[in-house]
Amino acid sequence: MVGCRGSAHLCQLGARRADDSNGRYSAVGPHGLPIAILGRRVDLDDRALGVATLVALACNDIVFRKGARMGDVRQLMTGRNGQVEELSELQIKSLAKRAANLAEQRGHPVAVAVAMVDPDAVVVEAKDARTGAVGIVLQSQVDADPDRYLNPL
């Protein structure tokens, strides 16, 4: 097994795999951004932007080094010469759903994962009346079920 779910999983997310001499796997995203993966953990030394965000979300643990960034899935690189294409509304919704599924499977905040893809998503902190837990949710969830989410901030 390689990385989070094997090299085939990394390829599904648009990354390629390269091994180094220390037994670490490097996922190089479509934007050429290196992501070091060791077992089920990803170390972000610099950034995981664009669809490379999905590679990181597929891991159980995401470790950010000082200054590292993740998210900003607004464009797709369409060729090796650096040409980019803005995502369509359908692509944004599809990638946001994929990001939400990966985040939920790995225990990451779903609302934050969706907001990394969908620029219209609004993230708020609210208390869940069912569980009593305070968490991060989407404003659309609060609007859809206002009796469940109390005191959104």
Indicate the topology.
Layout: H1 7-12, E1 16-19, E2 25-28, E3 34-38, E4 41-44, E5 47-49, H2 52-57, E6 61-64, E7 69-71, E8 75-77, E9 84-86, H3 89-106, H4 110-117, E10 123-128, E11 134-138, H5 139-144, E12 149-150
Parallel strand pairs: 4-6, 5-7
Antiparallel strand pairs: 1-2, 2-3, 3-4, 8-9, 10-11, 10-12
Helix pairs in contact: 3-4
Mean pLDDT: 76
- Percent of residues in helices comes to 25-40%
The ordered string of helix (H) and strand (E) elements is HEEEEEHEEEEHHEEHE
Rg is 17 Å
* Silhouette: globular
Strand order of the largest sheet: 1-2-3-4-6
Largest sheet: 5 strands, mixed
Describe the structure.
The protein is α+β, with helices and mostly antiparallel strands and 153 residues long. The protein has helices at 7-12, 52-57, 89-106, 110-117, 139-144; strands at residues 16-19, 25-28, 34-38, 41-44, 47-49, 61-64, 69-71, 75-77, 84-86, 123-128, 134-138, 149-150. It has a 5-stranded mixed sheet. A 3-stranded antiparallel sheet has the order 11-10-12. Strands 5-7 form a two-stranded parallel sheet. Helix 3 packs antiparallel against helix 4. The protein starts with 6 loop residues before the first helix and ends with a strand. The relative contact order is 0.10. Residues 1-35 have low confidence and may be disordered.
